[in-house]
């Protein structure tokens, strides 16, 4: 390690020293003790006597000082100049010059997180806290925590870790993610029963998730503990919160405006005037389009404007990125996925988006429209015309051409801002970058040659790790950039030349990897980059090259469970042009399709196993490339690969994204050989899509294409054609046919040992018995389903089984049913299984509406209305509206109940308030919208205490 410029020292766990290539041996117990004693002193001088005592205790050997000097010498060889040990009478001190200490980084991130939380940026606070807590690998100073010299520091760090964990729980509650905070808070309360802070946050979190009784119980348990152990009452914050919970303070259930804006990874530089002017334009009209060449900073400016202006939109700010879409394709599915909504029965995906947005107040940021300009312009134009409280901020290399559009060309950065950006990115590349006068002149030259284009400036600044500003400026002088700021064409050519310059500076293996990465639509992890972009290299070599590309700002890295790497769209377009010029594009696309088909099959299996949550998170991150892989496979008539992909993805897409993949299946049915072994699964996926759209005639006709053939074992739960036929029968009132099918399928699954299939079929047996009003007959199936689900450890299976058991128990044992529904909701939500989350939420709300606190029930039913509004399941929404009518009747809101009854009748739906009179039928979609609006208002009156009773 000697001579290495950087080092990393870790004490949040076992002591470890890393250089650029990994851990280095520190030595035995004595050198490790010496290093720890110096680290604990935090740069202060530690006397030789104290160091001797730390090494040998009260009985040091005769040559202790000489041995100490030998250990110091050995450590100097290990640490090198990055962390020099200095002799300073009367002892030694350790300087972390070019080294980092994980404990110091942890404390800095916690401070940053707390500052962000204080400023209201809870998303950034959460990211910083996750990064801080992720540094811990075990107990602080684990080997030495009991030693006198380290005990106080170990205790301090441990307490800070505990406090940061509590900070994280607070932030989750502020972000409206209270359910995620509850397990951690319960653990903190168990470990620290007299610490009031986590107990208070636990009260808030339980109340925010609809568990008022449990929230009050947390207070009573805290009061009992404090009384027994300390003889005191809870402090004022706990008592005040207790009173607010008793009073059903609406602010406790409030959540921040929704949205999906990304966290800003670095400080926004300059453009204050542009931010003000674009914000003013947004307030003056419904559509603003930021235009300019690639790399001019359109997207970054748009995100900054949206973040600063989000407070005026009740329904939040939503970013829809179109860059990953194939050229010229429709944009409806991408917009719906960004909004988190699904196609509604009887509507196209574009109509669904418009219907959802019609009455909402939100800012829709549509990014990178140029390659899908016609489709983007059409949908945005409809939004502008038909959604009066929606404002659209778009980015494109050319205007959309929509009526009412304000076109705002994004100018290059002025010299002062360009210089500030260069310095920021240069310091990210090398912390000791200084802007002395010579460097300032060179940076000004660089920014001028690059026409003030942010992407070009960032590429040049990344070179500061290995070059000086003067050297970069000289290189650019020798490069034929057009420069001069002569309009967008000149600036575009300047940027292309800057990218070309950066590309040519790369060694050939890095050029090859960069070209290969242009095939990915949405980025990739290391394994995918290796397998697709450069399979001839070793994975370690690919990682080294990726690291260097990230260092040079040619690739963007995003950390997570699996780090992911992507090219900015301008760089990706350049990379694609290079692959075509090199004749690599066909082979590259073939590897991309093959890899993602195999990934989809692995993910499909993983989603049915115990690691469903991890697979869901990973697969959702790959969705853009799954779409691109299908498009390529279908275009190349690679029908085997296309049908394999279609058979693999329903478990991911249908339950978590939307119904787009069902259209893929429909596209294949008439071109794939019906004898293909995966044909029944493709039929099942297509039939399920028609069923979700409410087109039962099409669903039946499609399902029958399978000719009674069953899919292969392990097929996604929703892709069985026979199940679709049974579900159509069930919704048509033919319960016996559905029950007969699922009973036979359960016997088959039991005989085959297919536990996932058995849970599904037993679930439906229980549901059928509940629909027949014989829930006691469904108890054996529901209990068996739960036993089998527990053995699978699959969260969706466990959620389904709990729902089934709750459904057949909700009349005979409502408390037990309510607990089961709540557990089912949490299990489904944890794996982003929106459909099962919704039905569990709904049955829990319905049970509370009959047996629980009406205010809590009203809040829960409002949440269910919003959920089915997003998911787009009209069948479930009408069922939920029946539950709302029952609650209104229970609390004597008879006028509101009568209005809702009228909407149910108008749509031809059964009403719990009595048989439907002879009345003209209206448009079901209009009736649904009116019913949901009235239900939401009536429930709001229950929550606020302004209940209106009496007859209509």
UniProtKB/TrEMBL annotation:
Pfam families in the record: AAA_16 (PF13191), BTAD (PF03704), HTH_77 (PF25872), Trans_reg_C (PF00486)
Keyword DNA-binding appears in the UniProt entry: yes
Ranges where the OmpR/PhoB-type domain occurs: 1-96
Domain of life: Bacteria
Annotated keywords: DNA-binding
SUPFAM superfamilies tied to this protein: C-terminal effector domain of the bipartite response regulators (SSF46894), P-loop containing nucleoside triphosphate hydrolases (SSF52540), TPR-like (SSF48452)
Record-annotated DNA-binding residue ranges: 1-96
Family: Belongs to the AfsR/DnrI/RedD regulatory family.
This protein's name: BTAD domain-containing putative transcriptional regulator
Organism the protein comes from: Geodermatophilus maliterrae
Source species taxonomy: Bacteria, Bacillati, Actinomycetota, Actinomycetes, Geodermatophilales
